[in-house]
Structure formats: C-alpha cells, structure tokens
Amino acid sequence: MVGASSIGNLFNHNRLPGALAALAFLAVLGPEMITPARSQTLNDQVSSKANQQKSRLLVDAKEIVYDNDKNRVEARGDVQLYYQGRVLEADRVIYDRGTKRVYAEGNAKLVEANGTAIYSDRFELTDDFKDGFIDSLQVVSHDKQRITAARGERTDGETTVFERGTYTACEPCKDHPEKPPLWQVKAARIIAKNSEQMIYYEDARLEFFGVPLAYVPYLSTPDPTVARKSGILAPRYSRNSALGFRVSVPIYWAPAPNYDILWTPSALSSQGMLNEVEWRHRLETGVYNIRAAGIFQADSRAFLPGPFGPNKASFLFNSSTYNNGTPYPTIYMTSEDKRVFRGSIETAGKFLINKNWNFGWDVALVTDKFFLNNYRIKSESLQVSYFKESISSVYMRGQSSKAYFDASVFYIQGQTQFDWQKQMPVVHPSIDFNRRFQLAGIGGELGVDVNVTSLSRQAADYSALPPSAGGVRFPSHSAFPSTWRGGPTLFNYQLNGSVFGVYSACALYQRGDCLLRGAAGTMNRVSTTISWRRNFIDPVGQVWTPFVNAQVDVLQYSLNTTSLATGLDAAGGYSIFGNDKQTNFLPQNDGTLRAMPSIGLEYRFPFAGTTGNVSHLFEPIAQIIASSNEAMIGRLPNEDSQSLVFSDSNIFSINRFSGYDRTEGGVRANVGGQYTMTFGNGGYANALVGQSYHLAGRNSFESYGTYRVDLANTGLNSGLDKSRSDFVSRVAFAPNRDLSFLARGRFDSDSLRLERLEVSASSKLGAITTTLLYARQEAQPDLGYVRRREGVSLGGNVELPNNWSLNGNVLLDLDRYTLDRDLYFTSPPGTVQGKYNSSPFRASGYGMGLRYADECTIFSVTYARSVADNLGATRSSTSTVLFRLELKNLGEVNYRQGVNSTSPDGTR
Fold this sequence. Notes:
Shape: globular
Radius of gyration: 37 Å
Structural class: mainly beta
Oligomer: single chain
Number of strands: 51
C-alpha cells in the first residue's frame, strides 16, 4: 500500500504487480488528487501536511493494468482504495480518466467514514466517491441497520436516493436469511440527506413478517446517528374515565447544541387541551430545566370535592359525640366550587462551584396536590414509596475525602387525600456538617458533626391511642368503641349518605389518650456532636475499641395555639385545628441547653480458620456504654426521632434513636456474636444474634409515668423499653450470585415470641427470576397500632423462547382480615352488611406483563393496579393497561387504557 506523488505517465500497456502497480494507478488519477507545491510558511506546511494525509488516496491490489488507448487504469484482485476516510473494496476497480468515473465490480463494498457499509455487485462513482450510481445495493450501518434497494444514486456526497428501497433495523434470520424480517419499511423512494440528517420515505408501507399493515404516503425520521433532532416525535395515546381519550403529540426543537424545548399538546376528549412545555439548558458549569403544564378543564365534575379531590367545597358543620360525651364535628358538603384551571410549574438545576462544591434546586408549584397524578405530569420532585409526595428543595453541598456539608430547604406536599398540607412541615433550613480528623498524638479518629434544623407547621398533627394502650402506664379510658379502628378524624365528610373521615384527631387531647406527632408552630435546634474512637489489637488478636461521644443541643420552640372555631360546634366552640390543645402537652414557649456525654468500650475477639476452600470467622462482641440520663424527655417536640426500629443494624450503636431530637442515656451493655462463612466461589453465609441490657440510670425507651414519656411514645413497644431487651438476629445466605436470602428478626426476651420479622430473597434459576419481600410487626398499642401489620410482596420474571418474557408482581395485605373480623363480630346487628372477608390474602396491588425484546423491536403489554390508584381524587378509580411498541430508530407508540372501578363515594 502506497501514497500518491507527482509521477508522470510512465507505463503503457503493462501489467505491474503489488505496490509498483499502485503507484501507476495513483499517478493516472490526475492532479486533482495531488496537493500542488507552493511557497509555504511553517504553519502552512504543518496544516498542508495534515490535509494531504487526510485527502491522500491509498491503493492496495494484486495487480494494475494501465490501458493508454482507452485512457483508463484497472486494479485487479482484492482491491482496496482509501480516500478521505472512505474505503472501497472490490474484485476489480476501473478508473476512466476521460469521464473521471470509478467502476467497482465483484463483491463491491464501500465503507463510509462513520462505519456505514454499502454492498453491491457494481458501483459507478466519481473519482472522489461523492457521486454515482449503485445497482442492487445493501447498506448496513455500524449499529446493524439495513437499507436495500434495486438502485441507488448519490449526489454531491450529500443526498442518496434509494429506488424501491427497504429499511429495517432487524438482523436477517441466521437459518433462513431469505425470510422477511420481523418488520420493515418498503418505500418507492428512500431519500437520505446528510446535511439535514434526515431520512425521507415516499409511498411507504410498514410490514410485519412481510405482511403490509400500514400505509403512509410520506414519512420522515432523523438519521439514526443523530442524538438530537428537531421535529415531531412519536405520538402517545391513553384513555381513562376522568380525562377521556388522550392524544399527545410532542414537538421537539433543538436550536442549539446546549439547549432545547419540548412542547407536548395533548387533546383530551373529556377535559379539553392540556399543554406541557419543558426547557432544558446546559451551561459550562451545570444544567437546569423549567417545566410547565396547564389545562382549563371542560368537566370538573369528573373529580371529587376537597379534601378528597381538587374541587373546592363549602361545608356546614354539625356536632356529634363519642360515647363518652366528647363532641366532634361532622362536616356536610353543601356546594362545590369547580376548579376550572389546573396546572404546575417546576424547575430543577445543578451547578458545580468547583470540584468539591455544588448547588442546586428542585422546586415545584401546583394548583392542587392531585394535579400531577390526575394528568400524569412528569415531575422530578415526586418521591414515591407507598404513597406519593412532592418534595421541593434548594441545596448547597460540599464533599471531600474527610468532610461533608449539606444545607437544604424543604417544602413537602402530600399527594393523597390523607395528607393535610397544614400538617406538613416546612424545613428552613436543615444543615449537616461532618469532618473527620486523624490524631497524631493519642491516635484514633476524631469526628465533628453539626446539625442545624429549623421547621414550622400550621396545624398540629395528632393521633389517638386505643383504649388498652399502655396497660398500667396510662390511665384507662373509654373514649372509643371496642371496634377501635384508628380513632376519630378531623373531617367527617358526608356524601350520598356515606361518611368518610380524614386527618387524625383525638377525643381527649391529653397524654395517655393522644399522641402529638407534630407540633404547630416553630422549632429550632442546633446540635453538635464530638466523637473519638481508636482500635487496639493485643498480642493474642483481641480488638479493644475505646470511644468517647458528646452531644450538645440548643433547642427553642414556640407553639402556635391559634385554632379555627367559627361555625363549628356552637355550644362548645370545638377547635378543628386542635392547636390550642397543644398546651396540654407542652408549654407554649420554651428553650433549653442539653448535653449528653458518653464513654464506652467495645470488645471483639475474631477467630478465623479454613476448611478446604471455605473460610470461617467467628466473632464475639461486647460493648459497654455509660451516658448521663437523658434530659427533658416529653418536654420538647420530637420531629426527627420517631422512627425507631431495634434490629441487628443498630444494636451496637451509641444512639439508637434515628435523629437528634432524642439521645439515648443511662448505662447499658450490648452483647452478641456473629459467624461468617466465605466460599471459594464468592458466596457467603452470615449469622448474628445480640441483646442489650440496661444496667443503671434512666432507660430512654421506657415510660416513667404518663408525663415522663415521649410525646409520640417513641421507644415504647420497641423491644428496648425494659432492662433486658428483646433478642435481635440476622441470617444471610448467598451461595452464589444467583441466589440470596436475608432475614432479620426480633424475639421477646422472655417467651421468644416473634415480635418483628423481615425477609428478602431473590433467585435466578435458569430462565426464572423471583423476588420476595415479607414483613411482620406485632401490635404496638402504645404507638396506636392495636393489630399486627403483615404483608408480602412477590415478583417474578420468566424468560420464554424466542425473546419473549412474562413478568408479574403482587402485594398482599395479610392483616386486613383481622380488622374486618373484629368489626363484624362486635358491631350491633344490622350495622354490618354481609359477611366479612376471612381470607388473609388481600391484594393491595398487583400487575402482570408480557414482553418481547430483540435487537430491533420492543413490545410489551402490562396490567397494573396499586393502592395509589384508589387515591386519584376522581369519581372512579382505575387500573391501567399499557401497550408499548418500539421500532428501533423509527419510533414508538404508547397506549394507556384505564379500567374503571367505583370511587370512594360509590359513584361512577
């Protein structure tokens, strides 16, 4: 293989082999293929050489025949021509100097600079390969897309026209390549324009397995190599009872490489026109986007009135009483103020300050909390667990190898009718700082943690306790009937003869009968924790770890005791907010300085051994911690420490509360042991068991009388609220990468009765993949849970032959029947219609789907229903059937169909 140079016509009717033949072939291509000599500066020479290298024609062939009479050169035998990134291969290549045309015959192949390969029996091209005709061609791109045509014509290296062309992204069948692919587009002409990066189809037919199913007179798609291209995207279709039939046609515009706009108008047969707009902008140090959506509804009655839906309602208030004579309000809807316009606006962004610092935001504003779910609006602020909530935040963060900083402001908006916005806290702000130091003198690691939290809420968040709560801890009370199912509610909404309650309230706003889960007003706290620990390993391998920990808190709060009493119970002026009842639990204003010093020692003695290819590790663990008694229990709000789960993950923690508002005090000892096996294939087995003993001082988890317990009863029924805690354990087993099992449990210290169990497992056996999640929590009456909570989630996927798969999932509520049973057998005759459902297998959510996926096609049909489907604020809840068909590089079609059921008020 050689390059071009200034060589004259040296040969006449001669056969030249190898590289010498290539020289002759290059010479006769003429001066247009050779860079002329001229006076050049040094920079020009460098640039010129680069251009020459790029535009140089290189030839490799077994022999060259130069025919002076016909003024042409012929290269024969495994010919390869390289020019401007293109490669032409053929059995024979002829160059006609008179017409300046190149003819390639026999197993001809042209590879473009982008990797696209064109196959044909014969090429007719200009000498720069930009123009020409190709007969019986096949084009194969680098990602295996194919275009075949009876004839193709290239013009100016820019436009290629395929006559009677066929396009597909499917690979031919290996056993029967003559069969038509799964799908293909046949067109009278296929026109590919490089400058526009578009492909146009004229008189196109979409065929599946060779059978025409759709005809389009004109169709255009972006070039497959293009990541972003302005134009109309694939439409989406859906239907449900509240919105009707929905057709969405996204229109995409990319005026510059670093920003674009997506406008999605959606025509809704029952509600009118919904518009969504998204702006995305990438800058040098970060990105941001702005999204907006809105609609003027045509039929607002498809949605429920508040608080169960977005429509505003007017209410009359009437007073009813509990069986102890305590009044509570029943609210009757008198009229609906239809919400005509509904919409949202959201922006999110993240920018780098330097390699360690960044700031960003995600802020969403909506007309009502049901809008995003009703109209299926995309929102980065949505956090989905069991229910949905929208979290708006602004933050600044920094991180290095030894330090972390986060300052954030949060606004939380619930997305269901069970969330009362006035009870949602606004965090302004929450600041976390962590720094680690390696000490040179005494050794070990010194840690500094700082947390600053300021929050407020408008309405107090209460939760009633059942009559039996607390046993001897609380006074007996009879505020509720024996069929207690959660206590009274703040709004008792009556419609069509049925009463529905939302927002928890209490019959008696006093300790022992009611929990204050969130105080109305403002709470501020600054917490600083300094810790030190160091490991010592003695000559026999024992590990001794002394540690010191000190937390200092400065707290201040101010309760909002303003309540709404106007228009309620005329006789007693019942407070619907209940804010004024907070003084039954806390002083209206207070502040304090609190300190919690702790010192401790941890002991471990690992024993290691090997049998065959299995390694063993047994490790007894003992820990003793001495702290001062926790101060101000039950005299301060508890906002961040209500989630307490005693388990294997925190048995050896200094503070087993989940936040800063509570700190564990007293002298306690934690003991346990764990055993680990590690197999040669990477599998493992692990088991741990442990128990905690409270030795002296005040137990932070135990009640010392009605007024000396946490406002939310945090710690009671936890397994730590006694001098000898429950046992906690863990068993994990993963013999290989395809099978894993994990179980965590808590067992009563006296009877070994199971109090809590969590199980997760996954397996992949051949074509079958399964997952299991199971949880069981015994009753916690001191926290308001009088019955056990139990559920299981099952999921599976089966890989079927020929690229098909089947999947399904189900979420079972295993304790619902206990509530139905109690209500049925304890209610007066005639108050419960029919028999209760005695089956323990009550589905809270389920879904199933069928999917096909290969290199060119994705097809799926899915049916799904979940608890969230019943919280949509419409007069009919729906399950969803989703159809999706994606043809690679051609587009996709989505259709979503709602399947109706009855709404909470019994209407359709």
